[in-house]
Design goal:
Family: Belongs to the cation transport ATPase (P-type) (TC 3.A.3) family. Type IIIB subfamily.
GO molecular function: ATP binding; ATP hydrolysis activity; P-type magnesium transporter activity
Bound molecules: adenosine-5'-triphosphate, magnesium ion
Distance between the termini: 63 Å
Oligomer: single chain
Membrane topology: Multi-pass membrane protein
Domain Cation-transporting P-type ATPase N-terminal: 10-82
Protein name: Magnesium-transporting ATPase, P-type 1
CATH topology of the largest domain: Calcium-transporting ATPase, transmembrane domain
CATH superfamily of the largest domain: Calcium-transporting ATPase, transmembrane domain
Length: 859
């Protein structure tokens, strides 16, 4: 076994050869055999554990207010010397923790199975064996081992902790690690230095870390640490990375607080009424605790995760992969979707159309210069570069370029510069070639090539050129300006200052056809209540044309410069009335998303480039196609396996189904629990004993909740899927205040029957058993009544409810009856019970009809 040093700042300062020696590697890469052996030794390079460890899952299962409440109840039992009560509560606690643990594990497994469908790869240099030449190939990131030589380019996620051994303009976004918003430059150490204080590893220029992403430039690097041994891995083990509160988190928090507020109001009232009436304050305290237990939808976390896990599986069948589980509900709530243009609305591949001179006449020169630049650039070719390369490749042009030219410099492309420059050297002269957005290139030109001659670029000529570009753009054609300049051989570096005094050669035009299904997808999204906005780095005319073709009303196109100039308040107004934004720099895309969210919108963002990463992170739901750069996929919450917005519309519907089923549980359970508490309150005012024991309340709740897990598989009304849906604390309060009292009314009529017909006023055992049965059955029934517009749930829901009902009704006859202090019920009572339940269903249906009229859209 070779001892690997891990990431230390010293390693960042060491000479390259020392680095390779220490890692037992070679600049030519490891052999496949070595890599295989090391993979066995170090394990897969997974940054995040695929699944939380058992201790962590147990902790998650234990940590719940419900368990705390129950434990409190157990302590009260123990304190008043009720051993049987204390033991039973302990059993309940264990049962509910087990249920949560089991359900959580199952969900995680389901989600894990979905997530493996998204893989990231790294470019690695390896050899087939000793003496074989080095070859570069893509391997799954998980297969990397210490000592591997990897190549990094823009859009890559740094796959492991690496030491850079060669770099050109490498710029890395480390925000995932250090929170530092600005990308940092990484380079080789200038010379070994002595430092007073060792720097943080993240600040070491020659080290790059797993989980960060390459914004620009290129590098060759050697892997130092993989998997859990990486810096990111150590952070992931400590805590979950903090993330801004999503619309889902906020919704759950508000709903949680609504329930807590109900509890804070009800519990003291119950305590006061019961204590005053009975004079037995110990019993009143226990009763109050029972009320608190009764009001908590204790299985909420379980039901939510079950729903989400089922949603994730359903979405994966629809080719949408969920990386962050909660994102499903953000998808359901999303009401505005921002999309990048290329690849989302238009085809993934742009085609080279033609090369023209400054007067718009067909002329190959612009394409030839552009080809030269693409041929020599180090940066990974993007779509436009590929179209240019594809144009002349195969004509033996490569041989020609390599024989005639050598490379002398490069100022790489970046999304804010919107241009790229390459310098080539030939026969004692340096030729600088720039290509990019005409608005960036033309102002840097002083001359133009016209009919083989270099002429001055007059103001009139500039206007003509602008008209030419606009005419192309208005047809939806993308245009790159190509300019060049020749000068004497230079020994020093070329910088941005050299991109001036250029001679405009001409333009290369590309067609970027709109995807076939794009217009239909935009329409489907609109039908689902989602507005589409286009956020592109491209020219405003191209953007407007594409918008028109896909059916997004363009209106006034707003430019990146306008976004930059607006203050936060101004921007918030601007983003509401604008649908197409053009010439955006990456940070501006993110700012627009932030402004939309500040307006209370739930914003999704679809993008595939490094320039979309910031916006993907900012959005409530960040969405990337599977063909996106690794950095974009890494930042996204959802990955589309099929590059089609139509898939997303299905995904949204699935998300709403998931949310709908979750909210059914929350609303209905909270309402009927509230009803129970009202009943308890009324009862405590006139009953000489407790109408139900806290313990029995807990048993009823557990039976009910176990059945409701099946809700995850319930149908949702089609109408429910047509509008954005979110957690709605005010709606919940309203719903509770209406349906709680309705259920309470039938509880009280059961009391009347028990009291007057069966003389249970002197038989607390019968009274409690009777109400236990009524309360459980009515709660199970009302779920079916209120779950949607119809009254029948899907098969699993009905079966689960029937099973829970049977268990509850038979409980008094079972050996466990003594444990929960119940006795068999008279057959006549069961008939009465059936009548009460039947009238409850009818009343429920009537009130539902009235409620649906008053609050359309609730179901
Ligand atoms: N390879 C390249 N060389 C030079 N300039 C380029 C290159 N690729 C793009 N550009 C210029 O940069 C501009 C912005 O491109 P960028 O990729 O940042 O936009 P985007 O928001 O991703 O666009 P889209 O919405 O089309 O995906 C392009 O309109 C073009 O003018
Ligand atoms: Mg793009």
């Amino acid at each position: 076994m070779i001892g690997f040093p891990g990431v230390t700042p010293e390693l960042g300062d060491a000479p390259v050869l020392t680095v390779f020696r220490r890692l037992a590697g070679s600049p030519k890469g490891l052999t496949e055999a070595e890599a295989e052996e090391r993979l066995r030794e170090h394990g897969d390079n997974h940054l995040e554990p695929t699944r939380a460890g058992a201790p962590r899952r147990i902790r998650a299962a234990v940590r719940s207010p419900f368990v705390a409440l129950l434990t409190g109840l157990g302590v009260v039992f123990a304190a008043v010397g009720d051993v049987r009560g204390a033991v039973t509560v302990a059993v309940m606690v264990v049962l509910s923790v087990l249920l949560r643990f089991w359900q959580h594990t199952r969900s995680e497994r389901a989600v894990g199975a979905v997530r493996v469908r998204v893989t990231t790869t790294a470019t690695v240099r390896r050899r087939a064996g000793d003496g074989y030449p080095a070859t570069e190939r893509e391997v799954p990131t998980a297969d990397l081992v210490p000592g591997d030589v990897v190549l990094l380019g823009p859009g890559d996620v740094v796959p492991a902790d690496v030491r850079v051994v060669a770099a050109t303009d490498l710029v890395v976004d480390q925000s995932a690690l250090s929170g530092e918003a600005l990308p940092v430059r990484k380079r080789l150490p200038s010379r070994p230095r002595r430092r007073a204080k060792p720097p943080q590893p993240v600040d070491t220029p020659a080290l790059a870390f797993a989980g960060t992403s390459v914004v620009g430039g290129n590098a060759t690097a050697v892997v130092v640490a993989t998997g859990a041994a990486t810096y990111f891995g150590s952070l992931a083990a400590q805590a979950d990375a903090p993330r801004a509160e999503s619309s889902f988190d906020a919704g759950v928090r508000r709903v949680g607080w609504t329930l807590v507020r109900f509890m804070l109001v009800m519990v003291p009232i119950v305590l006061a009424v019961n204590g005053t009436v009975t004079g037995n304050w110990a019993q009143a305290a226990m009763f109050a605790v029972a009320v608190a237990v009764g009001l908590t939808p204790e299985m909420l976390p379980v039901i939510v995760t079950t729903n989400l896990a089922r949603g994730a599986s359903a979405l994966s069948r629809r080719q949408v992969i969920v990386k962050r589980l909660d994102a499903i509900q953000d998808l359901a709530a999303m009401d505005v979707l921002c999309v990048d243009k290329t690849g989302t609305l238009t085809e993934d591949r742009v085609a080279f159309a033609h090369s023209i001179d400054v007067d718009g006449r067909p002329d190959g020169e612009a394409a030839e210069y552009a080809y030269l630049a693409v041929h020599f650039q180090t940066g990974r070719p993007d779509r436009l570069d590929e179209a240019i390369a594809g144009l002349l490749a195969g004509d033996g042009e490569d041989v020609l370029t390599d024989a005639l030219f050598t490379k002398a410099g490069e100022i790489g492309f970046d999304h804010a510069r919107r241009r790229a420059t390459v310098v080539v050297r030939r026969a004692g002269a340096d030729i600088l070639v720039s290509k990019g957005d005409p608005d960036e290139i033309v102002p840097r030109c002083t001359h133009a090539r016209r009919a083989g001659e270099v002429v001055g670029l007059t103001a009139a000529a500039r206007r003509d050129v602008a008209d030419l570009v606009r005419a192309y753009a208005e047809h939806g054609m993308r245009i790159l300006a190509v300019a060049a300049r020749q000068g004497p051989v230079r020994l020093g570096r070329y910088t941005e200052d050299d991109e001036s005094g250029l001679v405009l050669v001409g333009f290369a035009g590309f067609v970027d056809p709109v995807r076939e299904g794009a217009a239909a997808a935009v329409e489907t999204l609109a039908a689902h209540g989602i507005a589409v906005k286009i956020l592109t780095g491209d020219n405003p005319h191209v953007a407007a044309r594409v918008a028109e073709q896909v059916g997004v009303p363009a209106g006034d196109v707003v430019l990146g410069a306008d976004v930059e100039a607006a203050d936060d308040a101004g921007l918030r107004a601007l983003v509401e009335r604008t649908t197409v934004f053009a010439k955006l720099a990456p940070a501006q895309k993110a700012r627009i998303v932030t402004a939309l969210r500040a307006n209370g919108r739930v914003a999704g963002f679809v993008g595939d480039g490094v320039n979309d990463v910031a916006a993907l992170r900012t959005a409530d739901a960040g969405i990337a196609p599977d063909t996106a750069t690794d950095a974009a996929k890494d930042a996204a919450d959802l990955v589309l396996l099929e590059r089609d917005l139509g898939v997303l519309a299905h995904g949204v519907a699935e998300g709403r189904r998931t949310l709908g089923n979750t909210l059914k549980y929350v609303n209905i359970t909270a309402a009927s629990n509230f009803g129970n508490v009202l009943t308890l309150l009324a009862a405590s005012a006139f009953l000489p004993f407790l109408p139900i024991l806290p313990l029995q309340l807990v048993v009823a709740n557990l039976l009910y909740d176990a059945a409701q897990i099946a809700l995850a598989w319930d149908r949702v009304d089609a109408a429910y899927l047509h509008a954005p849906r979110r957690w709605d604390a005010r709606g919940l309060t309203r719903f509770m205040l209406v349906f709680g009292p309705v259920s309470s009314l039938f509880d009280l009529s059961t009391f009347a029957v028990l009291w007057w017909v069966f003389g249970a006023g002197t038989d607390p055992l019968l009274f409690r058993t009777g109400w236990f049965a009524e309360s459980l059955l009515s709660q199970l029934l009302v779920v079916l009544v209120l779950r949607g517009r119809g009254i029948r749930g899907s098969r699993p829901v009905e079966l689960a409810a029937a099973a829970a009902a049977l268990a509850g009704v038979l409980l008094p006859w079972s050996p466990a009856a003594g444990l929960v202090l119940m006795r068999p019920l008279p057959a006549a009572f069961l008939l009465w019970l059936a009548a009460v339940l039947a009238s409850y269903v009818v009343a429920g249906l009537l009130v539902k009809r009235w409620y649906a009229r008053r609050h359309p859209g609730w179901w």
